[in-house]
Design brief:
Layout lengths: L10 H20 L6 H26 L8 E2 L5 H15 L2 E2 H7 L16 E2 L5 H24 L3 H27 L4 E2 L2 E2 L14 H25 L5 H4 L3 H4 L2 H17 L2 H19 L7 H19 L2 H7 L3 H19 L10 H4 L20 H33 L4 H20 L9 H17 L2 E3 L4 E3 L4 E2 L2 H34 L14 H10 L4 H16 L5 H18 L4 H16 L4 H18 L4 H16 L6 H14 L4 H9 L5 H6 L6 H14 L1
Antiparallel strand pairs: 1-8, 2-3, 4-5, 6-7
Helix pairs in contact: 1-2, 1-5, 1-6, 1-18, 2-5, 2-19, 3-5, 3-16, 5-18, 6-7, 6-10, 6-18, 7-10, 7-11, 7-12, 7-17, 10-12, 11-12, 11-17, 14-16, 16-17, 17-18, 19-20, 20-21, 21-22, 22-23, 23-24, 23-25, 24-25, 25-26, 27-29
């Protein structure tokens, strides 16, 4: 078999590419899993720069003179990744409203009065969130493609293998010190929950569990492979030989990582890893040379259990005794199904799940608590990318695993068989765990999966060559016609990567000026000039548009500006934000509150009376379980009724009753508000909750007597 020479840059640049991939993997893990804009935006910019650097070499190599024809290997998943990227980009492109209505009939329905439907709109409910989401998942695809062409030799494959295991050991040591040392913080951030469980440098134990599953199974598989190819030691001198100790190191590291996984308390991660071990055993059972390793897997599981009991697994065992959390996650996933049914072809848009989930939310969410992710990556992909996006992900995973298993069956090298079985079992464990969590939404985990998929594919095509190991990928000769297609692809990749770098840098600069994403380090609104500067950088970001309005209202409430310019400006900017993000219930509530406040100062004339009522009703429809929205709408209706500004007393009382249904402990706040406008005891008793009814009635009677 010929070695694939393909469109590869010079070897020094290839080595630099590989070490850059590993460095980025380390940095994203240490940066809280890469979830913050300053981490994932920089990572995306570096990946885009790498593609920009390598594309000219591909272009030059395509038309190089020489007697030997050029050959190319196209790894699996390339077509799926390209189609998924096209789908994600199409979601953010402005299309005629009539076209959008054909593919997504409910999309134009989000423009309700006082908004008017525009002539063009994107398919996504939150197109800016879709573009930002690309910065998080696109590096995974780039890492996979670059890794396939960068991992050429056995030493380079070993560098990837030991780097991943080294990261796993670091997470284990840091997490155990964190949990048992009493610090309970990640770098400079004090943990707000999950005390007593290992989280490493990640924010959540479940996010760390995704990485540990993959690293644990890879290490144990490699240990089985090393042991199978090493001769049995003869005598005591054999115990000192390298052949004896070679499988010990990855095996011991695998045990340490597995114990750390137990200490995370992630039930989905622990069960998925156990099923991954079973998958590895089944693979070994299908290969005669690896069948003895099946019993060794059982032995490894016993060693892991003994070590785990030694360090203490009381809290983990306690979590397995409660199944409420699992039932709750299944309920969340079930609540997303109607969203998929409403947007089957196009989805709500990548990154738009949190924005669109409000009307479908479980009763306990959409108010004081929000669901940012569906706790089920597969369901969330279907909701955001539609059924076509889910089909691409599922078919891509099945195709890749099928091709890997077919290639694995043809190999006889025990080390390759063991390591690749571990990697395939790890990917199967991640796919299973993704049914119960959203670990693949963490940039560090996605990047690790991309790099290890490249390692798996190349290991399956690695052969001995001149006292070493080299990758021999199946390839095809590049004809003149394909040469031009490849050149066009290189130019397209260069252009796309340049735009990608610009988008990442712009997003990072805007977030530095005015943070709009949820982080573990919340910050107040910056000065108005900084928000306007950020908006000039990202005019399509509705959160920045709303931030200008919110800051204007903040300055007015601090009595630093007059009501007329500030409230009018806030109304204008909130309305502009809703045109860009019409499914955002929070922005609708802020817009309604601005209109209501403007009416107090006789702004807007009669038009604002109707707009305020319409805006509150829209906010209630998008956030039906939010007591703050219901309370604000009730206050406006009662005040508007008293001032003859379009409010309804009956509707106000209904909303007060709804507020108490959502949060019964707000009864004192609700009664104080109601007593400002209603003195009818029977009407007030009708809205009281069943909980604390006696105390509420005593409080009501005292208030009425004083009145």
């Amino acid at each position: 078999m010929r070695r694939s020479v393909g469109p590869l840059p010079p070897p020094p640049l290839t080595s630099l590419t590989l070490w850059s991939l590993l460095a980025l993997l380390c940095l994203t893990q240490w940066a809280f899993g890469g979830i913050h804009p300053w981490a994932y935006a920089r990572t995306a910019a570096i990946f885009g720069f790498m593609v920009c650097t390598l594309s000219p070499f591909v272009l030059m190599k395509t038309y190089r003179p020489g007697p030997q024809p050029m050959r190319l290997h196209l790894p699996p998943l390339c077509m799926h990744a390209a189609l998924f990227a096209v789908l994600a980009v199409l979601q953010t492109v402005m299309l005629p409203t009539g076209v959008v209505e054909i593919f997504s009939p409910l999309r134009p329905a989000f423009f309700v009065p006082p908004l008017s439907a525009p002539d063009a709109m994107p398919l996504s409910l939150a197109p800016h969130s879709g573009r930002v989401d690309m910065l998080k998942w696109a590096p995974m695809a780039m890492a996979y493609l670059l890794g396939v062409y960068a991992i050429r030799t056995g030493r380079q494959a070993g560098a990837v293998f030991w780097t991943v295991l080294g990261l796993g050991l670091f997470q284990a040591a840091y997490g155990i010190l964190q949990s048992f040392g009493g610090t309970e913080q990640v770098w400079n951030w004090a943990k707000t929950g999950q005390h007593g469980f290992v989280t490493g440098t990640y924010i959540s134990r479940n996010e760390l569990a995704f990485f540990l599953e993959l690293a644990t199974l890879m290490a144990l598989g490699a240990a089985m492979g090393e042991q199978a190819r090493s001769p049995r030691p003869s005598g005591w001198r054999g115990l000192l030989s390298e052949a004896f100790w070679r499988p010990i190191l990855p095996g011991f590291m695998g045990v340490i990582l597995a114990v750390t996984l137990l200490l995370t308390g992630s039930r989905g991660g622990i069960l998925s890893c156990g099923i991954g071990l079973l998958c590895m055993a089944l693979l070994f059972a299908s290969k005669r040379t690896m069948r003895p390793a099946c019993w060794k897997i059982l032995g490894a599981a016993l060693v892991i259990a003994v070590y785990g009991l030694g360090v203490g697994l009381e809290k983990t065992a306690e979590r397995f005794g409660h199944d409420g959390d699992l039932t709750h996650r299944l309920d969340i996933a079930a609540s997303v199904v109607p969203m998929i049914a409403d947007f089957p072809l196009t989805g709500v848009g990548m990154g738009a799940f949190n924005t669109a989930y409000g009307p479908y939310a479980l009763p306990q969410y959409g108010g004081d608590l929000d669901v940012v992710h569906a706790h089920n990556d597969w369901i969330e992909v279907a909701a955001e990318a539609g059924l076509p996006g889910l089909a691409l992900c599922v078919s891509g995973f099945v195709l890749f695993m099928t091709r890997c298993v077919v290639a694995w069956k043809k190999r006889n090298d025990p080390l390759v068989l063991g390591t690749c079985a571990g990697l395939m079992s790890g990917l199967a464990a991640l796919a299973l765990h993704s049914f119960f969590d959203f670990g693949m939404r963490v940039p560090a985990n996605a990047l690790a999966v991309g790099i290890l998929c490249a390692l798996l594919w190349n290991l399956l095509h690695m052969r001995s060559y001149n006292r070493g190991r080299r990758v021999f990928l199946p390839d095809r000769e590049i004809t003149n016609q394909l040469r031009h297609v490849l050149a066009i692809g290189a130019v397209a990749a260069l252009t796309t990567a340049a735009l990608f770098v610009g988008m990442a840098r712009t997003h990072l600069a805007a977030e530095n000026l005015c943070p709009t994403e949820r982080t573990i380090f919340p910050e107040p609104l910056p000065p108005l000039d900084d928000i306007r500067h950020a908006l000039r950088l990202q005019p399509d970001n509705p959160a920045l548009v709303a931030a200008v309005a919110a800051k204007s209202m903040e300055l007015f409430l601090q009595a630093k500006v007059l009501p007329a310019p500030s409230i009018l400006l806030a109304e204008e900017y909130f309305r502009a934000a809703l045109h860009k993000d019409p499914a955002n219930g929070l922005t609708w509530r802020q817009y309604a509150q601005t209109l209501s406040l403007g009416l107090e100062y006789s702004l807007g004339g009669g038009a604002w009376e109707l707009k305020a009522v319409q805006a509150y009703e829209r906010a209630l429809s998008l956030r039906p379980h939010d007591p703050r929205t219901a309370l604000a709408a009730a206050q406006h209706h009662l005040w508007g009724y008293a001032m003859d500004l379009g409010g309804s007393r009956e509707r106000g009382m209904q909303l007060l009753s709804k507020t108490l249904q959502l949060n019964s402990w707000r009864w004192k706040q609700v009664l104080d508000l109601a007593l400002e406008h209603v003195n009818d005891r029977d009407a007030l008793l009708a809205i009281l909750p069943y909980e604390d009814r006696v105390r509420a009635m005593e409080y009501l009677d005292k208030k009425l007597q004083r009145g």
